[in-house]
Design brief:
Length: 209
């Protein structure tokens, strides 16, 4: 059975080149349906240090996590019409090729009641299905800050991919073929949390929430 390795990775002091490339390839292969909403950040998991509890280090601090938004911001040429549908179509291809692309975990903050999560160690839990949907779990109680209604995916990849941008490019080429949207270069914005867990964007920054 595949192993969820990310919690065993060390914290890093700067962004990893392969993760940066993974974000770029995600933007290109999705035709701009998803865009960089933040990757590396030295911080704890949102909401893990409330009520007097000690915070839990975020996997963003390990350099292997990224947030990809499908939010439509026309003024900044971010996102596309019907973005969630297109983003989910792209994500299905990613999950069909999870091993090739080094995917370890995906969090989807939108669905009710409290979002859902895909993890590599659940891939073999049931007979294989299209897009490895058997590895998704719907959260029935508050589990991830920002759900429901959050318009982004949190994706974690293996350290081997996070350290190797050439391997990332080759993997995306194998999974998607050559991109026909290389002219689409989204402008990164810094997300901020609003009431109800939803997020708005402000320019110039790449820190995830």
């Amino acid at each position: 059975m595949p192993v969820y390795k990310v919690p065993g990775y060390s914290v890093v002091s700067e962004p990893l080149a392969g993760t940066i490339e993974w974000v770029k390839q995600a933007e290109l292969t999705s035709g701009g349906a998803v865009w960089n909403n933040g990757h590396y950040a030295m911080r704890n998991i949102r909401g893990s240090d409330t009520g007097g509890k000690r915070g839990i280090i975020s996997n963003h601090a390990r350099g292997v996590a990224m947030d990809l938004s499908y939010r439509r911001i026309e003024a900044r040429k971010l996102g596309v019409p019907n973005a969630r549908i297109k983003a989910l179509t792209w994500l299905n291809t990613v999950l069909d090729n999870w091993e090739l692309l080094g995917v370890q975990c995906v969090l989807d903050y939108f669905p009710e009641p409290h979002g859902r999560g895909w993890r590599v160690d659940r891939v073999d839990a049931l007979p294989p299905k299209a897009h490895n949907v058997q590895a998704w779990v719907k959260y029935m109680k508050p589990t991830i800050t920002g759900a429901p209604g959050g318009d982004w995916f949190h994706i974690e990849i293996t350290l081997g991919m996070a350290n190797n941008p050439d391997r990332v490019r080759a993997a995306f080429h194998a999974a998607f073929g050559k991109s026909t949207t290389t002219e689409h270069v989204p402008t990164t914005v810094e997300p901020t949390t609003t009431k109800g867990g939803k997020r708005r964007a402000r320019p110039n920054g790449n820190q995830p929430t």
